[in-house]
């Protein structure tokens, strides 16, 4: 499955555990995630084409990982679904001011 | 030549302030003003018995009339007075309909009451408030013989325009007890027989309507003693303390809407406070433009100052902390925390702003009338209407869904709160990552925009009579510059450290309790005003005065009379001769201008239309001022009160050239230099 990946997998399930991708590209167990990691991953989702593996209770045996993975997955999924809306929002953000003070 | 005033009030009505009519005052006014014809025109009323008394008491022709309130403005309707009873009856109909000062009658009602309007002399308030306008004017146009104006400037301007009604200037005065200063607003007509028809036909030929008895529209009366001024450019000469400024002060008293530039008002000073006050004056006049330029920056600041990134970060931390803690406790789950809803997160409700804006834009295109044909050549309006309907439906659907989501969220929250009370497990906090990330983007964009706005650049460049007013934006270089920009003598020392990071700078500004948030936007960019001269350099002290004078003269266009007292006190001849003279000359084509001067550059090279010479006369220990007047080409100037005369040539030499000897001496020097 991993070989057919089109985009970077930033959240994945492997060896019955949940993993997230660190800034250096390596993977780390999901319960080691920090606030900075989370923010970086979220920004990554909005800025780049990324993949997140769907939460599957069966595949994760570690119960702690289940709780963390599920919640983070839900949050990231919702963000990914709203990527278009987010970018529309950025586009509109202070457009008037941008045109007036920046564009010449 | 007949002098007429066909707009006189003798009855106090709801449209007047209270007054008591005095027949003696009316008689005195007629006599002193040398009137030949008057008309009594009270607001919406004709007092027959009073009119008969007036007729019997005065020696000049009096026509009966009435000033009627139409929906848009006032109309003078004057009768020939042949059937006073019938006229009185008709006017009673008007009085019945107009009881309050907010009432009026329509043109149709007017026609019903008075029948054939061509039997009367009809004069509307024309360039005078409240003017008969729009439909009222169009419907009555054919019956108007003249239009009333309220000052000399409007009279002269209207007279020159053949398309306009023939202008007339009347007193519109209340002949009341205690009236001391008689009005000077009357009109002369070259009319043989004084009948209503005679006056009407005179108005039809505007070459027979004048401001003065002998000088057509070149002169007009300024004082009750018969003193006249030119409707163009007047120059007053005279020795020191001979009554020149006194005359200007009197003129200021006698007329309304007078622009008076006093002596030394504009004199140059080189001290710092003068520069400062000059700049702040220029700044005040142009402040509106700059405020408008900064308006959207201001609204962005209002928005940005609501963002708290630290609190955003804390929310994310507490989400993650609660999540990890909840994961640790996974083995210790009890029956309450095992309930699925315990870990359920809220539905996120996205903003509808984007969709709403889109709908507005589509509707804008549909409703645009100006570019309708261009739009239709690309898009079918019907299709746009379908699109709008579709989008509106989507908005409604979303609103419906959002309502449900909100309902479920509050339900779930209630359950979660109850479960939390009963369990020892840590609940997972909810977090709105969408908004947290959006706030970060907001801040980034704010920083970009603010940085660009702080770059040096010109935002305003207005050429004014050879000068240029330039408003420049630039970053603050020193903390003192911010202090000078924002009122309240506040310290910005701590915040200024972060000036290069706009968002952080704003956070520091926010910590200053004494700083009103409405001033935040001013603390980001410095606006510098400069007045540049022809060479592009900042103006000197002398040039500042010149700029001020030009501005004052330009401003005079908004007034009816311009008075200038010795402009040479502040300027050099070269400036007076070139710019000022040209400007004064051109303004005097529009309105009467009076200049007091000792300077030959102003006095003669400006080519005045009329010359006045003042002289102080002491008799019996009492000082009075005499005025001699005449055209520049007249050999003699004449005093209107006692017909005494002075030689124009002598006056000019004495006033402008310090006398004949000095003039000759100067001539010799010039000759010597030349040779």
Description:
The complex is a heterodimer of chains A (104) and B (675). The radius of gyration of chain A is 17 Å and the shape is elongated. Helix content of chain A is 48%, strand content 17%. Chain A has a 4-stranded mixed beta sheet, covered by helices on one side. Chain A is α+β, with helices and mostly antiparallel strands. Chain A has one domain (2-102). Chain B is α/β, with parallel strands linked by helices. Chain B folds into 4 domains: 2-221, TIM Barrel; 233-257 and 559-674, Rossmann fold (3-Layer(aba) Sandwich), CATH 3.40.50; 272-304 and 445-532, no CATH class; 309-435. In chain B, 44% of the residues lie in helices and 18% in strands. Chain B contains 22 helices and 23 strands. In chain B, strands 1, 2, 3, 4, 5, 6, 7, 8, 9 and 10 form a 10-stranded mixed beta sheet that branches. An 8-stranded mixed beta sheet of chain B has the order 14-18-19-13-20-21-22-23, with helices on both faces. Chain B has a 3-stranded antiparallel beta sheet with strand order 15-16-17. In chain B, helix 9 (272-304) packs antiparallel against helix 14 (433-454), helix 10 (309-328) runs antiparallel to helix 14 and helix 11 (353-367) runs antiparallel to helix 13. Chains A and B meet through helix 1, helix 2, helix 3 and helix 4 of A and helix 9, helix 10 and helix 14 of B.
């Amino acid at each position: 499955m991993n070989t057919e990946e089109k985009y970077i997998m930033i959240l994945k399930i492997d060896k019955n555990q949940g993993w997230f991708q660190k800034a250096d590209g390596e993977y780390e167990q999901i319960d080691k995630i920090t606030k900075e990691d989370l923010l970086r991953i979220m920004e990554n989702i909005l800025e780049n084409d990324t993949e997140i593996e769907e939460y599957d209770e069966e595949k994760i045996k570690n119960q702690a990982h289940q709780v963390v993975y599920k919640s983070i997955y839900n949050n990231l999924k919702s963000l990914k679904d709203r990527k278009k809306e987010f970018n529309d929002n950025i586009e509109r953000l202070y457009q008037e001011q941008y045109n007036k003070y920046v564009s010449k | 030549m007949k002098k007429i005033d066909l707009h006189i009030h003798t009855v106090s009505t709801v449209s007047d302030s209270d007054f008591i009519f005095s027949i003696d005052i009316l008689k005195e006014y007629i006599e002193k003003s040398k009137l030949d014809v008057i008309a009594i025109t009270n607001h919406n009323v004709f007092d027959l018995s009073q009119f008969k008394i007036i007729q019997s008491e005065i020696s000049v022709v009096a026509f009966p009339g009435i000033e009627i309130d139409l929906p848009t403005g006032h109309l003078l309707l004057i009768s020939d007075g042949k059937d006073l009873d019938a006229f009185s009856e008709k006017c009673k109909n008007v009085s019945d309909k107009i009881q309050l000062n907010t009432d009026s009658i329509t043109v149709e009602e007017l026609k019903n009451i008075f029948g054939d309007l061509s039997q009367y002399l009809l004069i509307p308030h024309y360039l005078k408030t409240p003017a008969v306008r729009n439909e009222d004017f169009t419907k009555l146009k054919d019956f108007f013989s003249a239009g009333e104006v309220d000052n000399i400037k409007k009279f002269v301007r209207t007279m020159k325009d053949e398309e306009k009604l023939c202008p007339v200037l009347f007193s519109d005065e209340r002949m009341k007890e205690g009236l001391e200063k008689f009005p000077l607003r009357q009109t002369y007509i070259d009319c043989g027989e004084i009948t209503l028809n005679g006056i009407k036909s005179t108005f039809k030929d505007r070459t027979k309507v004048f401001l003065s008895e002998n000088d057509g529209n070149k002169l007009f009366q300024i004082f009750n003693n018969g003193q006249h001024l030119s409707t163009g450019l007047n120059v007053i000469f005279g020795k020191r303390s001979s009554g020149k400024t006194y005359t200007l002060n009197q003129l200021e008293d006698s007329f309304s809407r007078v622009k008076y530039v006093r002596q030394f008002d504009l004199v140059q000073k080189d001290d710092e406070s003068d520069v400062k006050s000059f700049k702040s004056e220029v700044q005040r006049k142009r402040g509106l433009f700059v405020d408008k330029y900064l308006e959207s920056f201001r609204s962005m600041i209002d928005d940005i100052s609501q963002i708290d990134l630290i609190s955003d970060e804390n929310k994310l931390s507490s989400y993650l902390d609660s999540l990890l803690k909840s994961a640790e406790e996974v083995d210790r789950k009890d029956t309450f925390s095992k309930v699925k809803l315990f870990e359920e997160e809220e539905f996120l409700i996205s903003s509808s702003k984007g969709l709403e804006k889109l709908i507005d834009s589509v509707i804008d295109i549909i409703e645009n009338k100006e570019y309708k044909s261009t739009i239709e050549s690309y898009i079918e309006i019907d299709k746009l209407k379908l699109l709008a309907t579709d989008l509106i439906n989507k908005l409604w659907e979303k609103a419906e869904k959002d309502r449900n989501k909100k309902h479920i969220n509050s339900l779930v929250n209630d359950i979660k709160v109850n479960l939390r009370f009963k369990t020892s497990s840590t609940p997972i906090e909810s977090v709105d990552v969408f908004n947290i990330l959006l706030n970060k983007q907001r801040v980034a964009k704010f920083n970009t925009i603010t940085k660009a706005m702080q770059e040096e650049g010109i935002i305003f460049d207005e050429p004014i009579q050879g000068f240029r007013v330039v408003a420049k934006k630039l970053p603050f270089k020193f903390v003192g510059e911010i202090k000078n920009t924002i009122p309240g003598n506040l310290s910005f020392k701590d915040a200024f450290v972060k000036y290069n990071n706009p968002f952080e700078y704003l956070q520091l500004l926010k910590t200053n309790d004494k700083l009103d948030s409405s001033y935040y936007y001013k603390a980001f960019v410095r606006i510098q005003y400069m007045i540049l001269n022809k060479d592009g350099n900042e103006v000197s002290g002398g040039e500042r005065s010149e700029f001020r004078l030009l501005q004052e003269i330009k401003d005079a266009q908004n007034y009816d009379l311009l008075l200038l007292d010795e402009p040479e006190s502040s300027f050099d001849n070269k400036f007076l001769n070139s710019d000022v003279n040209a400007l004064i000359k051109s303004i005097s084509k529009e309105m009467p201008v009076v200049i007091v001067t000792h300077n030959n550059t102003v006095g003669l090279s400006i080519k005045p239309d009329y010359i006045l010479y003042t002289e102080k006369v002491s008799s019996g220990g009492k000082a009075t001022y005499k005025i001699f007047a005449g055209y520049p080409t007249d050999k003699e100037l004449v005093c209107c009160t006692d017909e005494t005369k002075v030689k124009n040539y002598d006056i000019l030499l004495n006033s402008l050239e310090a006398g004949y000897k000095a003039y000759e001496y100067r001539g010799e020097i010039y000759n010597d230099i030349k040779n």
